[in-house]
Amino acid sequence: MTFDLEQFIADCRVALTADRSHKCVREVVARAISDRSSVLKALGEPRCGAFQPLYRSNDLTIMNIIWAPHLMRPPHNHQMWGVIGIYTGREDNIFWRRVPGSQGGKLEAVGAKALCEGDAEPLGPNIIHSVNNPISRLTGAIHVYGGDFLAAPGRSEWDPETFFERPWDTERVARQFEQANDEVSGHQGEMTPSQACVDQRP
Questions:
Q1: What's the CA gap between 153 and 113, in Å, rounded?
Q2: What are the chain's domains?
Q3: Which candidate among 33, 49, 67, 147 keeps its CA 20 to 30 Å from the CA of 91?
Q4: Residue 28 is inside which H or E element, if any?
């Protein structure tokens, strides 16, 4: 099938009306990413790490997230369900839970899953996960969330060294994407990827 962004948004909205969980939306995402070349043609070949909103409303957010090579995002939650659809590259997830009775919201690992091109993986609303792009090229994924992902209250992330909980900070995420892009670009005299992609930050 040919990927069309406006049609994809409309299909996600219909799926959300049919079932408020991720079940029907996952089917839409899986169908969309089954044609990698069509998605790349519509969204563009990834050229740098980016955190790009494609659609945003109170009950649905669609993101195009590009992971720079070897980028690692520390554990974080979403406070809503999500569906991750990989259309190029690979994404490794580690799943976490709060240690019962611990202070500071400290975490322990409880599972892991590698997502490859063509995978569409649902995430429940209470999931805590960390993400790593383990390969030396960009990974691209369509992320669909059952709410306003960029304004969800009570979101957290965890310090990557101590695993203690702290409030989610969108600007901190944007800086990490920029730093990862700069590491890839090296010290070339041309515009760095972070400058080229600054308009794609949340």
A1: 27
A2: 5-183 (2.60.120.10)
A3: 147
A4: helix 23-33
CA-to-CA distance for 196 and 192, rounded, in angstroms?
6
95-99 long-range Cβ contacts below 8 angstroms, 24+ apart: 95/127, 95/128, 95/129, 96/128, 96/129, 96/130, 96/158, 97/128, 98/128, 98/165
pTM of the model: 0.89
CA distance 66 to 131: 12
Pair of tokens at residue 32: 């969309």
User: Residue 194: what pLDDT?
Assistant: 44
Please give the helix or strand (H or E) that residue 182 lies within, else none: helix 170-185
The overall longest dimension of the chain from CA atoms, in Å, is 52
Backbone angles phi, psi at 147, to 5 degrees: 170, -175
Q: In 73-162, where does DSSP find H-type helix?
A: none
pLDDT one-digit tens code per residue, 100-148: 888 888 899 999 999 999 999 999 999 999 999 999 999 999 999 999 9
Q: What is the Cα–Cα distance from 50 to 66, expressed in whole angstroms?
A: 5
Residue 38 sits at φ, ψ, to 5 deg, of -70, -40
8 Å CB contact between 94 and 130: yes
3-state secondary structure of 168: coil
With CA atoms as reference, report the closest residue to 69 among 123, 139, 13, 152: 139
pLDDT at 197: 57
